[in-house]
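> call design_seq(struct)
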């Protein structure tokens, strides 16, 4: 008598189920083994996939992808948007515009000096043209400087930076002029103390614009 007959009688079909499972294990297809599925995949029976075939998502593995979590500089990469693309396109050109404006203010003071040496009116042409052109270029280019400083942040932060940079430019000139004008009053030609604030501001804008342009153009180091 089968000592387990009573137990099997309590579970009809147990013999048939056990036989089917045994045959399945003996005849595994293609050398793959069957295993009970994990709870995450529904708990079914299926083929076990080798762990070595598991691949990381391409967006995480490729640091050059625009969707990469990490950029080449190991900072979090910003998701691409048309607004960011437009801001950064202007940034690359605008910093040079800013530098050009500063150069024109320096050139203005040089022309004033030349006019004084040759006996012309110090404000004779092209001094007014240089002055107005420089103010326009520096004000417009300052927006690119603000974007460049905050280029690692979101597009709305870069827009705020663009506005703040124009205000900072005005503040820079106001402070320098307030310091240099009384300090050098009565020193050198009569016009010198009036132009030192312009000269200093123009030189700073020229240097900052060139520095940012070269920094932006420099390729990011690879990871």
């Amino acid at each position: 008598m089968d000592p387990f007959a009573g137990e099997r009688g309590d579970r009809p079909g147990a013999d048939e189920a056990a036989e089917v499972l045994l045959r399945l294990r003996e005849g595994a297809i293609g050398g793959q083994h069957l295993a009970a599925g994990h709870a995450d995949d529904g708990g079914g029976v299926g083929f076990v996939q080798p762990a070595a075939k598991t691949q990381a998502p391409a967006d995480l593995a490729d640091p050059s992808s625009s969707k990469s979590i990490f950029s080449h500089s190991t900072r979090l990469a910003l998701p691409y948007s048309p607004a960011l693309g437009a801001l950064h396109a202007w940034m690359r050109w605008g910093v040079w515009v800013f530098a050009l404006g500063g150069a024109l203010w320096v050139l203005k003071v040089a022309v004033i000096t030349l006019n004084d040496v040759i006996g012309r009116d110090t404000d004779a042409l092209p001094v007014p043209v240089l002055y107005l052109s420089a103010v326009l270029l520096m004000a417009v280019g300052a927006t690119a400087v603000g974007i460049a400083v905050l280029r690692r942040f979101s597009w709305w932060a870069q827009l705020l930076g663009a506005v703040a940079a124009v205000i900072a430019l005005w503040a820079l000139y106001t402070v320098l002029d307030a310091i240099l004008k009384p300090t050098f009053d009565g020193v050198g030609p009569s016009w010198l103390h009036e132009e030192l604030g312009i000269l200093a501001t123009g030189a700073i804008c020229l240097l900052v614009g060139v520095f940012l342009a070269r920094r932006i153009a420099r390729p990011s180091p690879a990871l």
